[in-house]
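To the wet lab folks,

You asked to see what we're planning to order before we commit. Fair enough. Below is the target structure as tokens, and below that is the sequence we designed to fit it. If anything looks off to you, flag it before the synthesis order goes out.
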């Protein structure tokens, strides 16, 4: 049987996973590119690296900014399945 301690650990693990998933920056499609909307960190405006750029709607640090009205759908990251 499952004891109280086991049940508490399962609930705690699920809660931590949910909170972590909700708080991490999300990827969206913006003008045929994938961008990561991140308030804390933005790529510099002259970034030419081929990667999902970190952007935000306004920046105090001269980082990349985007128009929120042009933001597309959120990109769902597919989890890799392990081969057996």
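Sequence we intend to order:
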């Amino acid at each position: 049987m499952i004891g109280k301690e086991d049940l508490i650990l399962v609930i705690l693990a699920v809660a931590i996973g949910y909170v972590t998933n909700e708080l991490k920056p999300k990827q969206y499609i913006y003008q045929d590119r994938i961008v990561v909307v991140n308030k804390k960190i933005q790529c510099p405006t002259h970034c030419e690296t081929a990667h999902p750029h970190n952007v935000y709607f306004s920046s105090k640090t001269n980082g990349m900014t985007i128009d929120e009205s042009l933001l597309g759908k959120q990109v769902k990251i597919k989890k890799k399945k392990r081969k057996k």
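Structural context that might help your review: The longest strand covers residues 26-30. The radius of gyration is 18 Å.

Thanks,
Computational group
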